[in-house]
Amino acid sequence: VKGEARFTAEFDIENFAYAELVYSTIAKGKVTRIDRSDAEKAPGLVAIITHENAPKLKKPTLLNVMKIGQGVGGSDLPILQDDRVHYDGQPVAIVVAETLEQAEHAASLVRVEYDAETPSVSFDALKAEAVVPPDVLGEEPEIKIGNAERGFSEASFKVDNVYRTPRHNHNALEMHATIAAWDDDGSLTVFDSTQFLNGYKHQLATIFDLKAEKVRIISPFVGGGFGGKWALWSNTALCAAAAKVTGRPVKLALSREGVYRMIGGRTLSEQRVALGADKDGKFVALIHTGTTATTTHAQYPEQFSLTPRHLYASENMFIGQKIVNLDTVANTWMRAPGEAIATFALESAIDELACAMKIDPIELRRINEPEKDPTKDTEFSLRNLVEAYRRGADKFGWSRRNPQPRSHRDGVWLIGQGVATAYYPYFRWPGTVRVRISSDGTAIVQAAASEMGMGTATVQLQHAAVRLGLPVEKVSFHYGDSALPDSPITAGGSSQTVTIAAAVQPAVEKLHRELLKLAADDSPLAKAKY
Question: Structure pTM?
């Protein structure tokens, strides 16, 4: 509120230089010549780094949520290590100068020549060649229950539609930024707008062949991420490489164009949803299939097929997805990845079936509410969808609406009411905290988390205060630094708050036990047991 939160590009390090990237202008091929002659004459130039003079960097390890912490690469392409171009926008040079304007000017003078090859960039041209991925976030890529096509053909009522969604780009208010500095002992300090401090620490250690304790990531505040700042993209490693080459701190802040060109977003998709119901409205067939795009250097099949597995009961089901590989920037997690596009398709189809049957869309959903998970046959720990429908209908005056589409106007505007079920999983990953209490009655909780607007610091100190029996003003929360105990991803599957809180509980309990050991014989707590 006060504007005092310091974001990555706002940190000030003595004697730092500015960096700017030069992006490829072809989608596939190789660099044949880089003309640096004009750029080398530009005022304020410090260095021009290409694959011809870049330091040796190891390939990133792809981000895998099922093996969290083993890698966080948005792509596993080599970073400025060879002449190959894999997508339009791939960085082919990094230019360092004394000021931002000088870096931008010098970068504009770098001339790159290519031997272009024919890229695969048309989803429509390749979707017939789509293949089933090995898995979808650790789940089987296809689910079959009964005979869905036969059940659909015999259904009393049916809809069978194709739903398409476009590519989406990340547009966080804070664009990706990095400041990198090397110390005399060979350790690396990086300020970065990342959602995953510990992941970046280990990934940069791998890329630069360092021990993890030699890398420190600082990221207290992140100005929006939504998945785009979860994976490590090449800009972070390139900034650190530039700092190594120049022997001084370097700042690299991507422009909005730079984000579009080298930071992955959401894949486009084409989904088929076919629903068949009997005369009473019960689903006798639920088919949800489709295709998304990814790349050979990322292999992330956006998980739209996970959502329909858990929402509605049906006698017969076929759920699955395929992928095509395009020569583009890698797609990645983006704000409700999979679930956003999946619920759009599935919920639209249910509404259209309700319209065809002339039945209330809420009633159709209620009729098909499962008693157990439809595909895993496990009990729900908590599920109040039907009650949520009822309360929502009451609040919105649902029964008074005209159910006929396009029937209500306000002047030139069409006014409507709709209903849809939102679905999103929540994850739990390992997390560690340190709790310290002082003789003056104050306490500190420490964890390597970032604050991205979800109230991380507020929640954790409130929780710790209750467990410690201290006023909130006596507790502080230290975060935003990988030197602190490991924490999970910020805003990744709604995991950070609950994971840190779950670590605070046993840490406080252990602290209480240690305090009791210190109680003197004449203390009211002497011989007390926890």
Answer: 0.94
